[in-house]
Every structure is written in structure tokens, then in C-alpha cells.
Design a protein that fits this description.
alpha/beta; Rossmann fold; 10-stranded mixed β-sheet; 43% helix; 20% strand; binds adenosine-5'-diphosphate; binds magnesium ion; Rossmann-like_a/b/a_fold
Length: 289
Amino acid sequence: MVESIEPAVLAAVDGSPAALNAVRWAAREASLRHLPLRLVHVCTLPPAPSTAPGGGGLVESRLEQGHRWLGEAHGQARAAEPGIEIHTRLRTGAAAAALIEEAATARLAVLGSRGLGGFPGLLLGSVSSALAAHGPCPVVVVRDALPPERGPIVVGVDASTSSDAAIAFAFDTAGRRQAPLVALHTWTDMSLGETWSVLPIDVEYDEVAEDERRLLAERLAGWREKYPDVPLALRTVRDRPVRGLLAAARGAQLVVVGSRGRHAFDGMGLGSTSQALLHHCPCPVAVVR
Ligand SMILES: Nc1ncnc2c1ncn2[C@@H]1O[C@H](COP(=O)(O)OP(=O)(O)O)[C@@H](O)[C@H]1O
Ligand SMILES: [Mg+2]
């Protein structure tokens, strides 16, 4: 097991089933991207351990456990992708902060949706949540149910520039995985409804829908040219973004979203759509900033 700071696909290991799914997902991605896989476990040690009675032993056993988890993850990654280069790293400190630091030298960070902490019923742990909101690279969150290997990749396209990065990531990933890509744009009459409900105006939904379709096609035209081998389907749906994306996620292998949408403000880590998807999407979710 070697240490590394070269660009890699990072997988965060904490001994949980979701993290092992993340490791295998990351291993495939490392293989497709011709990058090393970097497995990282962050060991949070008790304060002032050596002075507390039995404290030294506790530190030792935590570190040993960390090495065991990394060894197990290494075995799973190796079995999934025999050809890839794998590095492991055991760090100490606060998990989210250390992983954000690790992600700064990674092309992609992959985490489980849950870890060993939290409580039953919690759908997204605090470490994944922090990385999705503040990670310096694209972050993929994988659930503890086995992620599908086939099916389309779905990218959510809204009017924000944040979705440009998501579109780029989605085409790149679809190309490598030889997966069809669905570009989904949702629109609603919500803002119209609230403002105009007092006015005697009938909204011409067909015309709005046509406009939305045209805008999506214009937005994607350049990408279609750049990735002629990626089968692309454009879909516009009159629904809320989360509902539209969750429906499209059925049977998909990955859903890609920008970190923030059109209604976000500076300093906000994660928009509400991305946040809801991370909680409820049955397949892996990539958050791209
Ligand atoms: N100490 C850690 N070291 C490395 N990765 C971690 C650590 N803690 C959590 N993770 C990563 O974050 C994912 C989610 O865990 P977490 O957010 O801590 O959820 P929970 O609150 O359920 O423990 C894990 O599946 C793993 O990928
Ligand atoms: Mg945890």
C-alpha cells in the first residue's frame, strides 16, 4: 500500500456497506478514467489519548481497525478492477475536513450515502453531506443498495450556469461508460401561478412547453457535436425538478446535477434539488460545481 497525491479517483472508506459500494463504483471509474484509485479512511482519535487510562490502547485499536477497513476496501476494489493502481491512506482528524483536503487533489470523490454513525432512517450522513456541499471536485454519493451498472445517465439541466459543469461531467461519464444520456429540463407554472392568479390571464402551456424544448435543444446543441457517440435524448417535463429527476432516475445508473440551481445565493453549499436527490435518489448521484 503506497501513499499518493497524484490526481486520482478518491473513495472514502469507513467500514460501512455503502462505503464499500462507493469503493467498487470508484474502482470502475478509476479504470475508465485511467487514474489511480485512492482509498482514504479518516480515523478520529479521542482527545489527549496517551494521558487517559488505557488511552494508548484505544488509539492503537482505532488505527488497527482503520487499516483493516482499508485492507477490506482494497480487496474489493482489486477484485472489481484487477488492472487499476490502488493507493491507500489512513489519516487522523475530523472526517469531513480531512476528506475535503483529500478531494482537492482528486478528480472525483466517491462516498457512501450513509456510514456507521447517524441513526436508522437518516438518508444522508453528515460527512457525505459536507462533501457534496463543499467538496472541491465532483462528488458521487452511492447508496447501500447495489448500484445499477447499466441504464442511462440522467443530467438535470436548468437555466443556471452551474448546470454547465454538470452537463460536461455527464457527457464525459456517459462517453466512458458507453451509456445513453438523458438531458432533463423541468419547468413549472408556479411563479406564473402565484403572480398572475389574480389577473385574468390564461397561460398558453403548449407555447411555454415549446419554448422550453427549444431552449433545451439550443443549450445542448454544442455538446451533441462534441460527443457524437453519446446517444442523447432531450426531455422537458412540466413538474418540479426533484419529482421530474426522481422519476427519470428509475432505471438510470447515475443522476448528475449541479451543486446549486438558479435560486441559490452565494455561500449556500447545495441547492434544494441536489439536496433532495442526495436523500431520495435510488441510484448514485453526482454533484458537480
Ligand atoms: N471517517 C471516515 N473516513 C473516511 N470516509 C468516511 C468517514 N466517515 C464517513 N465517510 C464516508 O462518508 C460516507 C457517509 O458517512 P457519514 O456521512 O459519516 O454517515 P453516518 O452519519 O451515517 O455515519 C461513508 O459511506 C464514507 O464513504
Ligand atoms: Mg459517520
